[in-house]
Amino acid sequence: MFGYQIPRDYEEAMELDRKNGNTKRKEAIDLELKQIDDYQTFKDIGKAEINAKGQVVNAPEGYKKIRVHLVFAVKHDGRHKARLVADGHLTRSTAEGAYSGVVSLRSLRIVMFLSELNALKLWGADIGNAYLEAFTEEKIFIVAGPEFGDRKGHILIISKALYGLRTSGARGHDRLFDVMRDMGFTPSKNDPDIWMRPSKDGKVYEYIAVYVDDLAIAAKDPAEICQILRDKFKFKLKGDGPLEYHLGCGYWRDPDGTLVADPKKYIEKMMEWHEKEFGEKPKKIKTPLDPGDHPEIDESPECSEKDQSRYLTMIGQLQWLVALGRFDVFCATMTMSKFRPAPREGHISRLKRMYGYVSESRTTAIRFCTAEPNYDDIEVPQHDWMRTVYGNVKEVIPEDIPEPKGKPVVTTSYVDANLYHDVVTGKAVTAILHLLNQTPIDWYSKKQGTVETATFGSEFSAARTATDQIVDLWNTLRYLGVPAKEKSYLFGDNKSVVTNATIPTSVLSKRHHALSYHKVREAVASSFLLFHWIDGKKNPADILSKHWTFVSVFPMLKSLLLWRGETKDIKDVPTVGDKDKAN
């Protein structure tokens, strides 16, 4: 990890310290146990008496014996970490909820976007040993091992929600829930791991996004929030300050002040892993896969057992990279994920190529551009839908949304389908890219569930999926208190589908398209959705739907992942101005 060997247990950690002539792992263990003791996690009831069968004779009545183990890691800045984890699988399952959720990465990006839009300060913080803030209700104990020093062989009753216990997630969540409520925050009904409250002046909402023990705070005064968590609630916060690194992604600002989400450190970690496993750096290349490539018909020999394990690791790393913002490798990653059960040598060669592409393009990043796109030149059709089956249909807006505050947001979505993407199954791919103002906020690339025999059917199915996602996106925004714009914009490059969906007199030609047909048309009839045609050469959803050539997508990649400043200044990008600007 980051070039360091990670020990598997206490004994190996001590051996690595001896070999390296340092005490970094021992210091990490001692720090972890000291912090655990600060929380009064264990109650020491004395030396364990163990019989010939290995049973603890003087075990506390009603308590079950389990084990603990140490998990080691190295942070991106070289700090060695150790975590004491309980073997919770040795306890019985409970009927009550045992786990807590985490904020989705889409919701996290939305919070960051709203922070920039409404001029909030964006901070990060880590709750040290977050679960230990809560008591456990499980009756369990351990017999201390050598890592506990003088307490080796003692019976230690676990009284706090130690990591690894079945109910620790739920107990930690309950504790945080009470704290957030006390500070005036309420969970969003759409994503309960986003906490929100009105700012002191009442003009905007402030947010805290929770991912286990990592906090992303968007507020007028995040320092005050952190101080309250420390002083009033006795949380041990670490790394609190302007957000610089969060969940594998770095954050910094362009010279013009634009917030940038950059997974460069994670990419460096991927490249180090590749060089360690294969003995060489990946060969740099301009595209993830060859245009028109069909790995599903690869007939090369199956991978060795070792390469199968590598394949799983590589797919996992690529999937997380996509989640961090590299949607330019989404289609290739989705395509190659299919072969995880039994990859072939040709498949792992393709993954190596994808690593080469990622290495070549490691400067790409998501920029949080908050200026609204200019759609003044888009004609809004004036059709009468009253004499159709939809009548005077209106968008259904939830009645329990919070009062809107702050600046409004324009949602823009691009949709595409790639017919016959998989020549073995005949299935097409649906690709969708969503933007808030001019910031990419969510992306989708997935094979369709049914086989379509013509582009029209696959494109209409994709448009239906896009419509569902737009509705969901707007519900998320509304439950975060974001003022709604009058319309959401959807752009597709199939004229027949756009015409069929937007003209009241258009008729359904094939019955099996009925659900997609009515879903999209109802959204258009309600005036919630404006579905507009765009030239396929300028449709950024192409990046997500097919294996492309660099020349064909570079103008779009440049505007979405490579450009500095507001994308409204980029030439030849649909729906934005025509002033060119040098990178």
Describe this structure in words.
By secondary structure, the chain is an alpha+beta fold. 32% of the residues lie in helices and 19% in strands. The chain has 14 helices and 21 strands. The protein has helices at 10-20, 24-38, 105-117, 168-182, 222-231, 264-278, 305-323, 330-337, 345-360, 455-479, 495-502, 514-525, 542-545, 550-562; strands spanning 42-47, 64-65, 68-74, 80-86, 121-127, 140-143, 154-158, 186-187, 194-198, 205-211, 214-219, 237-242, 245-246, 249-253, 259-262, 366-367, 411-418, 429-436, 439-447, 488-492, 529-533. A hairpin with a 6-residue loop joins strand 8 (186-187) and strand 9. Helix 6 (264-278) packs across helix 9 and helix 7 (305-323) packs antiparallel against helix 8 (330-337). The chain is globular.
Briefly say what this structure is.
It contains 14 helices and 21 strands. It has about 575 residues and is an alpha+beta fold. Strand 14 (about 250-255) and strand 15 (about 260) form a beta hairpin.
What does the radius of gyration come to? 27 Å
Sheet with the most strands? 6 strands, antiparallel
Quickly count the helices: 14
Structural class: alpha+beta
The quaternary state of the protein chains shown equals single chain
Approximate shape: globular
Give helix % range. 25-40%
Percent in strands: 15-25%
